Automatic annotation (TrEMBL):
SUPFAM superfamilies: PEBP-like. Pfam families: PBP (PF01161). This is Raf-like protein. Belongs to the UPF0098 family. Transmembrane segments: none annotated. It comes from Bifidobacterium lemurum.
C-alpha cells in the first residue's frame, strides 16, 4: 500500500494559516486530501491516524490531529480514469458523518484534559489542523487496511483503543505511512 498527496507541505487551507471560514473555535477543521494506492485486494476497511511527533518537546506528548476507523473501502469514490484508485477528498472529516455514518472518528488532542480548551465535537472528534508554535513540524499519516472492521470503536474513541483493536485482529493489516510538513 502507498499513500501520497499532491503536496509535501500542508497547504494553508488545512493548517495554521487557514481562513476564518475554515476554522471552528479558532482551530483549522478542513481536512486535507490524500490518495491510497496499491491496497491489498483482500482489504475491505481503512483506518488512519494523523499525528505530530514533533509536538513532544512543545507539549510533552505526540499531538493527535485526526483518527478514523472502519471506513469501508467500497464507500469511497473510484475514478478508473485516475491514476489513484482511492482518493480521500478535502474536508472529508466534516463530510464523512453524513456520507458514511458507519465510519467513526476518534478524539484528537484538543479533547485532552491537559489541554482542556475545547469541548465542541466538531473540534475534538474531527480533523484538527496543524498549528506548530515553535518551528516547522513533520506530521505522520499512518494508514491501515484490514479485511474486517475494528470491533468496539464508537464515535469519539481514543487512539489507543484503535491501536488495541488493530493488535487484536486475527490478520496482519496492510499498512504504510507518509510524513508531511506543517509550516510555522
Amino acid at each position: 500500500m502507498k499513500i501520497s498527496a499532491d503536496f509535501t507541505v500542508i497547504p494553508d487551507d488545512f493548517a495554521k494559516a487557514a481562513a476564518p471560514e475554515y476554522r471552528t473555535g479558532g482551530v483549522p477543521v478542513i481536512s486535507f486530501p490524500f490518495y491510497i494506492d496499491d491496497v491489498s485486494p483482500e482489504a475491505r476497511y481503512l483506518h488512519w491516524e494523523f499525528t505530530d511527533p514533533d509536538s513532544i518537546p512543545v507539549c510533552g506528548f505526540e499531538w493527535i490531529h485526526w483518527s478514523v476507523a472502519n471506513l469501508p473501502i467500497e464507500a469511497l469514490m473510484f475514478d478508473f480514469n485516475d491514476s489513484h484508485a482511492l482518493a480521500i477528498p478535502p474536508d472529508f472529516s466534516r463530510q464523512m458523518p453524513a456520507m458514511i455514518p458507519e465510519t467513526v472518528q476518534g478524539r484528537n488532542s484538543s479533547a485532552s484534559k491537559f489541554v482542556g480548551r475545547e469541548n465542541d465535537p466538531a473540534v475534538i472528534m474531527r480533523y484538527n489542523g496543524p498549528q506548530p508554535p515553535d518551528q516547522d513540524h513533520a506530521y505522520y499519516l499512518h494508514v491501515w487496511a484490514t479485511k474486517k472492521p475494528l470491533p468496539g470503536l464508537n464515535q469519539g474513541f481514543w487512539l489507543n483503543e484503535m491501536h488495541h483493536a488493530l493488535r487484536g485482529l486475527d490478520e496482519i493489516p496492510d499498512q504504510t505511512g507518509i510524513f508531511l510538513t506543517g509550516k510555522v
